[in-house]
């Protein structure tokens, strides 16, 4: 039987995507996956479905995106590798090749 639970995000909106943004859910007592080990998440074959809506600032149109993450996409990690590089002075560089990298 399928059950759907909304996941509360640390920050549910972002005024601009000119820099990077990661949607993050804190696993606390109110989270539906609280207390589950990564093995339990894989055994129960938990599916996370992401749906985002925004406004394109150039054409003022609504933009919708969605993606499904199966349980084999869920890993236990400490944090994502920073893809934003500010070492070049006042210029920002996004290194998209590190987008999926995590520090374990």
Point out poorly predicted stretches: none
User: Mean of the pLDDT scores?
Assistant: 84
Integer tally of domains:
1
CATH class: Mainly Beta
| CATH architecture level-2 label | Sandwich
The largest beta-sheet arranges its strands as 1-2
Q: Give the radius of gyration.
A: 16 Å
Strand content: 25-35%
CATH topology: Immunoglobulin-like
Count the E strands: 6
Helix content: under 10%
Draw up the topology in text.
Layout: H1 38-43, E1 48-56, E2 61-69, E3 79-80, E4 84-88, E5 91-94, E6 102-103
Antiparallel strand pairs: 1-2, 3-6, 4-5
Summarize the structure.
It is built from 1 helix and 6 strands, in the order H-E-E-E-E-E-E. It is mainly beta and 104 residues long.
């Amino acid at each position: 039987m399928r059950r759907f639970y909304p996941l509360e995000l640390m920050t549910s909106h972002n005024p601009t995507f000119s820099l990077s943004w990661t949607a993050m859910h804190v696993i606390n007592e109110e989270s539906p996956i609280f207390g589950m080990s990564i093995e339990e998440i894989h055994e129960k074959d938990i599916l996370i479905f992401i749906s985002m809506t925004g406004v394109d600032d150039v054409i003022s149109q609504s933009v919708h995106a969605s993606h499904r993450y199966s349980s084999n996409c869920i890993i236990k990690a400490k944090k994502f590798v920073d893809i934003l590089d500010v070492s070049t002075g006042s210029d920002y560089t996004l290194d998209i090749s590190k987008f999926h990298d995590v520090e374990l």
